[in-house]
Amino acid sequence: TDQRLIGTTFMALNGVSFTVKKGEAVGIIGSNGAGKSTLLKLLTHVTAPSAGDIDLYGRVASMLEVGTGFHPETGRENVYLNGAILGMTRAEIDAKMDEIIEFSEVRDFIDTPVKRYSSGMFVKLAFSVAAHLDSEIMIMDEVLAVGDMKFQKKCLTKMRQAAQRDG
Fold it and tell me: How remote is the C-alpha of 51 from its chain's centroid?
């Protein structure tokens, strides 16, 4: 059963080929089980392809699943941990810590263990870290499905600004 499920997932990606040029934004649409999340995991090297090549040129910021890379310590400690996982140096994180916390809207809880955060608080902090990585490529998978509409709009604005600023 497991092999059949894995085969079905990767079959959806058989023969997929595309190019995204600098400055382009792309959305991946499909029904449940179509391979959207699998494709994003392949693009971010979370999963290795069984065949073919994936070429990415630039620093990647990704949020594939809410809480990936987060530990049940404080929000502040998780900013360092998640930032490091995304490839930020401690100096970069230190320089951007106030901006990350401010954007996340969890300042009052930043020194509280994240296990006490709501799912909305969790995604706000996680997105804020990823949004402050100086990256050329940003990959998001349903992360804005969590959180309030005001924060979703704020995140979309941040992504548009980054795309316009950095191309």
Answer: 24
Helix or strand holding residue 124 (H, E): helix 119-131
pLDDT at 10 (0 to 100): 52
Angle (CA) 133-134-136 rounded to 5° is 115
Cα(34)–Cα(10) distance, integer angstroms: 9
Partnered with residue 81 across adjacent β-strands are: none
Distance CA 81, CA 44 (A): 18
- The mean pLDDT of 23-47, rounded to a whole number, is 83
Residue 113 scores a pLDDT above 90? yes
Whether the Cβ atoms of residue 20 and residue 42 lie closer than 8 Å to each other: no
Q: How many CB atoms lie within 10 A of CB 133?
A: 21
Question: How many angstroms from the chain centroid is the CA of residue 129?
Answer: 9
User: Taking the chain, what is the end-to-end CA distance rounded to the nearest angstrom?
Assistant: 44
Tell me if 147 sits within 8 A of 121, measured CB to CB. Answer: no
**74 within 8 A of 48, measured Cβ to Cβ:** no
Say whether 61 sits in a helix, a strand or coil: strand
